[in-house]
Amino acid sequence: MQKLEPQRQTKEFKANRIVIQVLLVLMAVEWILLLLDQSWLSLFLVTLIIGTVFSPILFRKRMQVEIPAEFHLTAVIFIFASFYLGEVQDFYQRLWWWDIALHTTAGLLMGILGFLLVYILNENKRVELNMTPGFIAFFAFTFALAIGSIWEIFEFSMDQFFGMNMQKPMFGDPSGLTDTMWDIIVNALGASVISFSGYVYLKRKKSFFVKDWIRSFITKNPQMFNR
Predict the structure, then answer these.
(1) Residue 226: inside a domain
(2) Are 123 and 60 part of one and the same domain?
(3) Are 202 and 167 part of one and the same domain?
(4) How does pLDDT run across 60-80, given as a tens digit for each residue?
């Protein structure tokens, strides 16, 4: 079984790399077309996606942190779905549930990130902390809510100062308030799922998929956990 694990990780890494390469080629072609069309906002969003693709290089060289392939691929796909499909390809208008689905997913992802951050601090032998499972779960939940709230402030600011339409009309409400409130609600729901799952894992050692992500991060960055 121990010999099969590296093989499985190698296959997953190759699959992740193929997906990243396909998305990168697609974004490169789209970037050129948007530049020729002088669609500057869409060009900026596509540039942001391309930057996300290359972000592990920055973390590896400047911050000496290795980003696991699972984290990187998840972030790229989410930003691709949010900015490229949502904004550039107008999925927010075409599919009424697209915004809700993405904000629910964002709650899940930010909950995972919050759980990962505080769990790493708790396990780091150089940091004198001993946090309870309840506190770790609570931190993950509030972290996701905070990031979601900051994003809503960003959307409001872009609409107010640059005349954009990031706070979309929803359910007959043209003001964008209903959109904002549903974004916050589903973000909280997604965060609560991860927080509760993490709490059960820490308390009862039940199965939790984030455990594999955390183990992958620790394995790739042993310098962060040594005395």
Answers:
(1) no
(2) no
(3) yes
(4) 666 555 666 666 777 778 888
**What distance, in Å, lies between the first and last C-alpha atoms of the chain?**
30
By residue range, what is the domain housing residue 144? 96-221
Q: Which residues contact 60 (CB under 8 A, 6 or more apart)?
A: 66, 67
Q: What are phi and psi of 38, to 5 degrees?
A: 60, 40
pTM: 0.69
Token pair of 119, please? 């769990």
Q: Read off the pLDDT of residues 114-156 as tens digits, 9 standing for 90 and up.
A: 877 777 666 665 555 567 888 888 888 998 899 889 988 988 8
3-state percent helix, strand, coil for the chain, nearest multiple of 5: 80, 0, 20
Is position 227 within any domain?
A: no
Dihedral angle of Cα 144, 150, 154, 155, to the nearest 10 degrees: 50
Domain boundary among 68, 89, 110: 89
Burial annotation 61-99 (CB, 10 A radius, 16+ → b, else e): eeeeebbbbbbbbbbbebbbbbbbbbbbeebbeeeeebb
Task: Work out how many domains the chain is built from and give that number.
Answer: 2
